[in-house]
Every structure is written in structure tokens, then in C-alpha cells.
């Protein structure tokens, strides 16, 4: 897997073109990688939504990683995607303008129903795919959709490749830049381990502190 003209090239990498984009990044950006879960039951459903041309839909991301590790790129890496929304961290706001958006196929928060679990859309998931954990922005435990190891391995490799190619300085969760509205990628995702491995020197100030530059 490598990057050629801001596009991923390699076996099994699919490309779609989202119409939802904000033009080229300014010089010096992107410098941040934002990790999301799709909160959807399938990668295909999420990709359709992230490419939805309906006025008012207006969402996209650069990449979607399916549960089997399959990668779909929706926008070239020199183009602004609409994945962050209202966001603030480290003295900056509006993170679409500074960041690449990586969506991971994961249903997010689950709740028990009989002998299985359901997501916010009422779709069923087997009990073996649910993990209990306390979200970093919360105080009580919840159930979350497990990330398969093959998917985590692909996300790790992808983040490493993008960090090297674009001089990425921070890897952040959507839940950290939009803590009032977002809970992705959630406590089932090993965000701290990922960034400690890939960007061990980055400084992650708690929100509200001065810019970590
Ligand atoms: Zn998100």
C-alpha cells in the first residue's frame, strides 16, 4: 500500500468520489488525523451516506475501513472532507480545514436486547461483538461495538502511512474535538495506544488548555 497523487494504491483498495468536499487544503495542512466510527451496521451503508449528493446531507470522509479491513477512499488527501463538523481543540476550531477523516465501520454504542445487542437503528449484533467500557467523556459504563483485530491492524498501518506522507502531528478522536456532540471512536478503540506508537512525541493538552504547538 502506498500513496500516489494523494490516492491510496494497493491490492483491495476501492475508490469512490464523494461530491461533499471543501476544495484544496491550505499550505501546511492537513496536520491532524481524526478517527471516527461510522455508527452504521455496514461499511456500504456508511459509504453511500458519505457520498450522498442530497443538499443538506453534506458529509464525507477521506477513508472508510470495513470490518474485514477493506479500505475505500472517498476523497483525495489534498482535498477537504466534511467529517468533523463544529469542533475545537488545542486553540483551533473547524477541524475539517486541518484534518484527514478516517471512518471505521463500527456500530458504536449498543444496548442489550434479549440475548443479543442492538444499535441506535435497532439492528442486531451478537453478544460476542459487544464490549463494556466507560467512555472518556462519561462516568458510567456502556456497551460498545468491538473492533475486529484485522480492522485495527489496517487502521494502524493506514495511520502510519498517512502520518509519514503528510507530516501528521496529532491523531485525535472525534469525541475529543466535539465532546459535547460526539462519542466516536469510543472506548473500544485503542486510540492512546495507536498514537503513542505512531506519534510518541505529540503533546495532547486537555481541551481548554493553550495550543499544543
Ligand atoms: Zn465522527
Describe this structure in words.
This protein has helices at residues 43-50, 149-166, 174-177, 191-198, and strands at 2-4, 7-9, 13-15, 21-24, 32-37, 63-65, 71-73, 79-81, 88-89, 92-93, 99-104, 109-113, 116-118, 124-125, 130-134, 141-145, 170-173. It has 213 residues and is α/β, with parallel strands linked by helices. It has one domain (2-198): Lysozyme-like. The strands form five sheets. It has a six-stranded mixed beta sheet with strand order 3-7-6-11-5-17, sandwiched between helices. A five-stranded antiparallel beta sheet has the order 14-13-12-16-15, with no helix packed on it. A two-stranded antiparallel ribbon has the order 1-2. Strand 13 and strand 14 (124-125) form a beta hairpin. The mean pLDDT is 94. The structure holds zinc ion. Zinc ion binds at residues 36, 174, 182, 184.
Can you summarize the main beta sheet? 6 strands, mixed
What is the element string, with H for helices and E for strands?
EEEEEHEEEEEEEEEEEHEHH
Spatial order of strands in the largest sheet: 3-7-6-11-5-17
Task: Name the CATH class.
Answer: Alpha Beta
Task: Supply the number of helical segments.
Answer: 4
What structural class should be given to the helix and strand makeup? alpha/beta
| Rg on CA atoms, Å | 16 Å
- Poorly predicted residue ranges: none
Separation, N- and C-terminal Cα atoms: 31 Å
CATH topology: Lysozyme-like
Broad shape: globular
| Helix percent band | 10-25%
Specify the CATH homologous superfamily.
Peptidoglycan recognition protein-like
